């Protein structure tokens, strides 16, 4: 159990750092009221977790330890649903209804689509 917790914690540590860097890069290079940084990491994280779970279902390529490290740890630290909810609240408070609707709708539908694509990609390998 301790080993699993350390794998998850290490993955989360790395995922959180990469989330911060990727989000900051997107926001600095695409300034807008639309939160491109969080949007980018959430969609990318959904694709990645789809690939991880697709690979783990397809073969024994990923051990349970790697699955915990990548899916629970790294992707858990990389994706930012709580930030997503907070940013939506801020958009509503600021009266940015178009950005709120766009951000919520695109995040949900593209997130599910990217996860499906990740699983599909592993089935085609």
Mean pLDDT: 92
Number of domains: 1
Put simply, the count of helices is: 5
* Helicity level: over 70%
As a whole number of angstroms, the C-alpha radius of gyration is: 16 Å
What is the succession of H and E elements?
Answer: HHHHH
Largest sheet: none
Number of E strands: 0
How much beta, percentage-wise? under 5%
> Which consecutive residue ranges, at least 5 long each, have pLDDT under 50?
none
Straight-line N-to-C gap: 32 Å
Structural class determined from secondary elements: mainly alpha
Q: Looking at the structure, what is the overall shape?
A: globular
Map the helices and strands.
Elements: H1 2-29, H2 36-58, H3 64-78, H4 81-93, H5 97-123
Task: Give a verbal description of the structure.
With 125 residues, the protein is mainly α. 85% of the residues lie in helices and 0% in strands. The protein is built from five helices and no strands. Helix 1 (2-29) runs parallel beside helix 3, helix 2 (36-58) runs antiparallel to helix 3 (64-78) and helix 4 (81-93) packs antiparallel against helix 5 (97-123). It is globular, with a radius of gyration of 16 Å. The protein has one domain.
